[in-house]
Design goal:
The chain is an alpha/beta fold. About 45% of the residues lie in helices and about 15% in strands. The protein has helices at about 10-15, 30-45, 60-70, 85-95, 115-125, 160-165, 180-190, 200-205, 215-230, 235-245, 255-265, 275-285, 285-300, 315-320, and strands spanning about 50-55, 75-80, 100-105, 125-130, 140-145, 150-155, 170-175, 195, 235, 305, 310-315. Helix 7 crosses helix 9 (about 215-230).
Amino acid sequence: MNNEIITPDKEFEQKLRPSRFADFTGQDKIRERLELFVQAARERNDVLDHVLLSGPPGLGKTTLSYILADAMDVNIKCTSGPVIDKPADLAGLLTSLERGDVLFIDEIHRMQRSVEEYLYSAMEDFVIDIVIDQGPNARSVRLNIQPFTLIGATTRSGMLSAPMRSRFGLVNRLDYYEAPTLSRIVKRSASILNVEIDEAGALEIASRSRGTPRIANNLLRRARDYAQVKADNRITREIADRALDLLDIDGDGLEEMDKRILTCLIEKFSGGPVGINSLSVSVGEEADTIEEVYEPYLIQEGYLQRTPQGRIATARAYAKFGLVPPER
C-alpha cells in the first residue's frame, strides 16, 4: 500500500531509527509511561488507547509510533493529515485495519475538518457512516471497523480542535534534548555507521544540534564525510568543529539563517518589536518557516522574544554579536 519513494535521507533516518523502547534514548518519562500502558494493554489482551504525540520536528514522534506498534505486535499504516482529502480516503484506511492495528497520522492538525469529524465515531465507537448516492436517493450506511489505535503526531498542538484532542486517551509532549543525552544518541548512530568517534567529538556535535536528534544524526553524517576525507574516518572534537564550521554552524548551534534573523532584527529594526511579515521580507524567508523552524530554538535559547507587538531581540542576541543593547 505504501508507494512512498525512499530517498537517501529517509533511508539514512530509517537505518538509525531505534526499533525498541530499550534503544530509545531520552524522553524518559514518556518512554516509561508508554511502556507501562503497552504492558497493561497486552496483559488484558486489549487494544492500546489512542495516542497523541506533540512537539517540535525531529524529536522522535514517528520513531515512537513504530516502537509502539512493534511492542504491541501489530501492523502500522502511516499517512499524513494533508494527504487525506476526502472522507472516502479515510474510510479506505480504516476498513483495511485489523484488530489492534496502528494508524499513524503525521501532522494531524492539518487534516480537513470534514475528514476529522469522520474520525470521531471511528475513535470512540469504531464505526463510520458513509453517504451513498446523492440528492433524494442519498442514504447513510454505517460500517463497523475493527478496534484500532490512532497515533497522531503534531508540531502545533494548539491547532487541534478540542473535540479531536479530547478523544486521545494518552497525550504526550516531547521536549528538546539535553546535550549529554544527544551525545549518547550520536555515539549509538556512529557505531551503526561504523565510524569512530570519541566522547568529546560526540558532545561537540550534540551541543550544536539544537536539542534535536534528527539534526544530530544529520550533522554526524556530515562530520563522517569530513572525517573520511580529512581524518582517517575518526571524529574528534577538533574534526567535528572543523566539519560544522564548514556548514556555518557555530558553537551555539546557530545556522546562517538564525544569525541573519537576529542581525536583521538588531540592525534594521533597532532590536524590535517588529511584525513577523516585515521580518520575513527582510531576511527573504517565508513567515511560516521562521515561526516553525527557526523561532522555537531562538526563543528557547533566549535570543528572541515574541510579544503582542512583534519580535524583540534580547540582550543575549546583542551579546552574541558583541553589541550593547539599547535601553528600552
